[in-house]
TrEMBL record:
Residues 1-22 are annotated as: Disordered. This is RBR-type E3 ubiquitin transferase. It catalyses: [E2 ubiquitin-conjugating enzyme]-S-ubiquitinyl-L-cysteine + [acceptor protein]-L-lysine = [E2 ubiquitin-conjugating enzyme]-L-cysteine + [acceptor protein]-N(6)-ubiquitinyl-L-lysine. PROSITE patterns: TRIAD, UBX. GO terms for molecular function: ubiquitin protein ligase activity; zinc ion binding. It is an enzyme of class 2 (transferase). GO terms for biological process: protein ubiquitination. Residues 546-762 form the RING-type domain. Residues 340-417 form the UBX domain. Pathway: Protein modification; protein ubiquitination. Keywords: Metal-binding, Repeat, Transferase, Ubl conjugation pathway, Zinc, Zinc-finger. Its EC number is 2.3.2.31.
């Protein structure tokens, strides 16, 4: 500490940091001299030292501004006033009014120079560098980030990036650490170091791209891909600890050998390993983050694995549920075909063990080819991702039916196979998860403005996973209750109670018989549980006497077969009647509530009975049982509070969420977004009930009736609808020839020739009719007002989708022309994404506003927010369409304002459900 050293006579406990009496007094003298006012003239060195000091006291006010005063006993650094080294070096030219070159402060104050004096001054400068850490950088301070990346690639070193603020205590503390001799040696030997301020252009780029919220921050980047490898702690540590982090990283990762490493995203979310190009297959790195799992995906010793039964898992094997060996050439069956619209794609596949293989396919091939190629080399594709592209994209086996062209594969691609570490990993560079963090609007970063449209703990599963979840619930209930209950019975009770396990356990323990009867698993009366047996004539053969007569078709069937086909009610029917009855119910999408065919018997038929009825080894029985199980599973999903079917076209996935309601979820298979409550597109701030009514109103003819009531009238005799198309009020109905007045609907013969009797106001006769007509016209006008705005934003969304594609093409074109990288132009695409997201939310504000009444609470506040939100969206749209001609700062400001208004509207939406 500087002041401690001065108070102690320039000494501390370290023998290397000794400072004699002359040095201590010199420092105090320099500080006192610094506090004086000194003129800045080109001939000041020719004036004796005592005269110059006197001249500064008398005339300094006219020549220079007063410098910041330094207290020798309480001297502090890092506050923007400079440092002792600045003082000794005379670097205060910013205080000069006349822009004269500053002369060195030390010769002017200390007088004549001698060799011994120069050596003493040099020793003083060396000592001062130990006391003060200047805000300086070791390399590439003013170089753009792209140039630094290129130089780091050539140097084959990790890129160490420091981003800090100008006047912040933590930044000055970090300067002290970075200028430590040992830290500098470690960085110079193993890293390529660059430093930026947050306010710089490159600092803003890095801040937005890596979504940085706190500063200073030190990142380790892979210069070839630009991806973040690690984030080093920059606060509350000393130089020794920081140096240990740097050395540990090099020890574990070495240079450019991070192909299996895993990195930690901000907010604590785990990412799969970031791909780095490497030809060295002999080294396996471990994670830099010590709190994460150390396991790395290993290739399996066998090429056999089990297939899931769902349709989405057919990418692995094709023949049922048996263990199957995949040949390494099986992928060629799905590698595409040459045609006028297809192009060849050369793909290099890098496996977790470092091995690289290449394949040639066409862009009309499906991802199924890649997964079969991976499986053929011993990897279970259910446990591994395919990672490709920059920014990084992640795909798994659920997307196997998509083509390479639809996934954006180029003519040459490098893909990486990486182990799945979490089902809830999010793509770090996903544009859909754009989190605005701009200095211009600090409110966006507050906890009150978090994006509430994202549901947590959401997973995309298959229907086989649904069956596993339900069966685990059934087994859990059976372990907790006393008594013997069939699995089918417990499953049906869960279905009837909307999978409320606690209710099922409680009622089965309290009164099981009553609970089973209430849900039609047992008949109401015991005497109907058995059906009266109908015997044949005594003259019949013994074989015939063992037959039963079907109560539906009156045919005979074997009694032994009847024992297999009995339901809980014990009514007997032949197998063919059961088969037809079940088929008819399944065709009507009713599998969970199939009841007995007997009169006044509503006992439910369970899957065990259906399995016995369809046990024949023929195609019809097999198809019926499969259709029955699929329908039954769909009904379970519809009533399960934690599951919804994905509404995407031809998508068989199911969305499972632990704690999601009225929130936006996304299917990882088809990327379809939806509301978890109603399965529509997410519609905040409109609630589900209003959105359903609005959809129905837009699709049916409900507003047509309003138009008819507002612009037409009915004949008072036959009630035929009549529209007036002329000026005369004398109307004649073509159907009943009734002549009446169009104004009052009275008989025309009651009207005189000189005036209409209906011109007289009659409150009793006209009030009700006029009220109905006025109400219909008002409702129609209100609907057309909101529908017009809804439809206008819907059309704008379609146009802006094309604009987003053009922006992406323009960015790729600029990158190909070496006019920057994706980091330089990504803000344009992100602005288009923010515009789409905001306009989509704005569009769904109008259905909610339509169903507001005059007495609705919060109506005025909502309309005010809607007005501000619409203005912000249109301003953003204007700047996005002119993005290349206008200032980027204006675009960023509009993005921040629009996003802030969007989140404000959505936050009000969620307050309704608290």
């Amino acid at each position: 500490n500087m002041d401690d050293r001065l108070r102690n006579g320039g000494r501390d406990s370290s023998p290397d940091n000794m400072m004699d009496e002359d040095e201590s007094s010199l420092i105090r003298h320099l500080i006192r001299s610094h506090n004086m006012r000194r003129p800045v003239t080109s001939h000041s060195n020719n004036i004796p030292i005592n005269q110059r000091i006197q001249m500064e006291r008398n005339n300094g006010e006219e020549l220079t501004e007063r410098r910041p005063r330094l207290d020798p006993d309480t001297i502090t650094f890092g506050n923007g006033l400079g440092s002792l080294q600045d003082l000794l070096g005379g670097r205060y030219s910013e205080y000069d009014r006349n822009d004269h070159p500053r002369q060195n402060v030390i010769p002017r104050i200390l007088g004549p120079q001698t060799p011994s004096r120069n050596q003493f001054l040099q020793r003083m400068l060396n000592n001062s560098s130990r006391y003060v850490r200047d805000d300086v950088d070791m390399s590439s301070r003013s170089f753009p980030i792209e140039r630094v990346r290129e130089e780091a690639v050539e140097a084959k070193k990790w890129l160490l990036v420091c981003i800090k603020e100008h006047s912040h205590t933590s930044s000055f503390h970090l300067n002290n650490i970075l200028l430590d001799a040992t830290v500098k040696h470690v960085i110079d030997s193993n890293y390529f170091f660059v430093s930026y301020y947050k306010s710089d252009e490159d600092g803003q780029k890095l801040k937005m791209f890596y979504k940085l919220n706190s500063f200073p921050v030190v990142l380790i980047l892979d210069p070839r891909t630009g991806e973040e490898v690690a984030t080093l702690p920059s606060n509350c540590i000393d130089a020794t600890t920081f140096c240990n982090y740097l050395l540990n990283f090099i020890t574990k990762y070495s240079n450019f050998l991070a192909k299996d490493a895993e990195y930690k995203k901000m907010y604590g979310e785990l990412l799969s390993s970031q791909p780095c190009l490497s030809n060295d297959n002999s080294y396996r790195k471990r994670r830099f983050n010590g709190d994460c799992d150390d396991s790395i995906g290993q290739p399996s010793t066998s090429k056999k694995f089990r297939k899931d039964d769902s349709d989405s898992v057919n990418v692995i094997v094709e023949n049922g549920t048996k263990l199957t060996t995949i040949d390494q050439d099986d992928y060629k069956k799905f590698s595409g075909y040459p045609c006028s619209e297809s192009s060849p794609v050369f793909i290099i596949v890098q496996f977790p063990d470092g091995k690289r293989l290449s394949i040639n396919v066409y862009d009309n091939a499906t991802l199924k080819a890649l997964f079969l190629f991976i499986g053929g080399h011993g990897y279970n594709v259910r446990d591994f991702y395919i990672i490709y592209g920059y920014p990084k994209k992640i795909i798994d086996y659920t997307q196997a039916d998509r083509t390479l062209k639809s996934m954006g594969f180029e003519k040459r691609e490098l893909i990486f196979i990486d182990k799945k570490y979490s089902n809830f990993c999010l793509n770090y560079y996903s544009n859909n998860d754009f989190d605005l963090d701009m200095d211009v609007v600090e409110e966006v970063n507050d906890d009150d403005h978090k994006d509430l449209t994202k549901a947590l703990n959401v997973e995309t599963i298959t229907k086989d996973d649904v069956v596993e979840i339900i069966e685990s619930n059934v087994e859990s209930i059976k372990r907790q209750i006393s008594g013997v209950f069939a699995t089918d019975q417990v499953r049906h009770l869960l279905f009837k109670t909307r999978f409320n396990s606690e209710e099922v356990i409680k009622k089965l323990k309290d009164n099981p018989d009553s609970f089973l009867i209430d849900h039609k698993l047992l008949p109401v009366e015991d005497d109907v549980r058995k059906c009266k047996r109908i015997k044949m004539n005594e003259t019949a053969s013994e074989n015939i006497s063992n037959n039963m007569e079907c109560l539906i078709c009156c045919s005979q069937f074997d009694l032994k077969e009847h024992k297999k086909l009995k339901n809980n009610c014990k009514h007997c029917f032949c197998k063919s009647c059961w088969f037809i009855h079940i088929k008819n119910q399944v065709d009507m999408n009713n599998a969970a509530n199939i009841t007995c065919m007997a009169t006044n018997c509503d006992v439910v038929c369970l899957p065990t009975l259906v399995s016995q009825i369809t046990d024949d080894n023929n195609k019809g029985s097999f198809e019926l049982y499969n259709n029955y199980m699929k329908t039954l599973c769909n009904e379970y999903i519809e009533v399960h509070p934690k599951m919804i079917k994905c509404p995407g076209t031809d998508c068989l996935s199911v969305i499972f969420a632990e704690n999601a309601s009225y929130k936006e979820v996304k299917c990882s298979n088809c990327s379809k977004k939806m509301c978890f409550s109603c399965s529509f597109q997410f519609h905040a701030p409109a609630n589900c009930s209003n959105m359903i009514k609005w959809k129905r109103k837009c699709e049916d003819d409900s507003e047509t009736s309003n138009y008819i009531r507002a612009h037409t009238k009915e004949c008072p005799k036959c009630h035929t609808t009549i529209e007036k198309n002329g000026g005369c009020n004398h109307m004649t109905c073509k159907f009943c020839s009734n002549e009446f007045c169009y104004v009052c609907l009275g008989q025309w013969k009651e009207h005189g020739t000189s005036y209409y009797s209906c011109s007289k106001y009659n409150d009793d006769m006209k009030a009700k009719t006029e009220k109905n007509i006025s109400k219909a016209a008002s409702e129609l006008k209100k609907y057309l007002h909101y529908f017009g705005r809804w439809d206008n934003h819907l059309k704008s969304l379609k146009l802006e989708e094309e604009l987003r594609k053009k922006i992406k093409e323009k960015i790729n074109e600029k990158i190909n022309k070496n006019e920057g990288t994706w980091i330089d132009w990504q803000y344009l695409y992100e602005a288009a994404e923010v515009l789409t997201k905001c306009r989509f939310t704005l569009m769904h504000c109008y259905p909610e506003a339509y169903y507001f009444t005059e007495s609705s609470p919060g109506k005025e506040l909502f309309e005010y927010q809607l007005n501000m939100f619409e203005k912000a969206v249109e301003d953003l749209s204007w700047y996005v369409e002119r993005s290349e001609q206008d200032n980027r700062s204006h675009l960023s400001l509009c993005m921040a304002i629009a996003e802030r208004n969007r989140k404000a509207v959505i936050s009000e939406y969620y307050k309704k459900f608290k």
